Amino acid sequence: MTQITKQELLKKISNFALQSLLFEAALYPKPGLVDPISSGAHKDMDYGTFLDSSRALAPFFTDYLELGLAHHGTPEALFQKVRSTGQLAEKEMLKKTEGVNTHKGANFSFALILASIGKLLQKEQLSLPFSEADTKAIFDYTKQMTNKLVAQDFSNLTKKKELTNGEKLYLDHGFTGIRGEAAAGYPSLQETALPFLRQRQSLNDRKTFLFLLLSLMASVEDSNLINRGGIDAWQQVKKMAAQQARSLSEDSSIDELERKLVAFDQALIRDHLSPGGSADLLALSYFFGQLEGLV
After folding, report:
1. What's the CA gap between 102 and 99, in Å, rounded?
2. What is the mean pLDDT of residues 89-117?
3. Which domains does the chain show, CATH number per domain?
4. What is the dihedral of CA 264, 266, 272, 273, to 10 degrees?
5. How far apart (Å, rounded) are the C-alpha atoms in residues 145 and 136?
6. How much is the pTM?
């Protein structure tokens, strides 16, 4: 265990969050997504936009941790504090990117998870590297913070004059998006991403995370894909991702993996499809990988 002061630990965890956004942005090649070589299916953003967005959000990562560390009320009350600060962070992000939404979903999730970590640090029960039990405790507290979120946010939608994309998906198909993922304790991370990383921690980081991206794309409810192409397009991308993963082995060369993913990228660009929800979960996966000493 690495023994450091609580303030040093907050700084280190905050830096882990920033590094996770930067790692996800830099990972290449990612089908339909922005990376240093391709803007994917996006015409309004590029790699530089993601760097600017990450820098804008970075100061708030410490704020989220400190909100949790100082909180002594209910988990739901902490969520309200975090949501208010998260909205300020989103405004700074949009100011920096000139209105382009790069990290709205990631900011939401990092805000919740970092606040949960801060809350658990009150009892000084966490030190690096985190154990699997530490990680589960973080998800459990995040679940307590958000267990009423879906019901609260999606009530009375039929009376609203203007709906967000997420609200439309909920009314039309019952999809709960990132709110539902949070309220369930991030099952995509607990059941898919983190077991994947724990089994492969000695492998090449880049290859491991490209395979993990395919795994996430093949399994998660990705509202970005659904908003852009509808249910059929989302289901098709899930099938394509699963097929790509089956056609490769973890002994495949990085060159072979790149060739297949570049071709997949071109297919999604052609259809204007971007698995942004999977990208956010990939960044969170890298974050917990750092916390547990897996990467």
Report:
1. 9
2. 97
3. 6-291 (1.10.4200.10)
4. 20
5. 14
6. 0.95
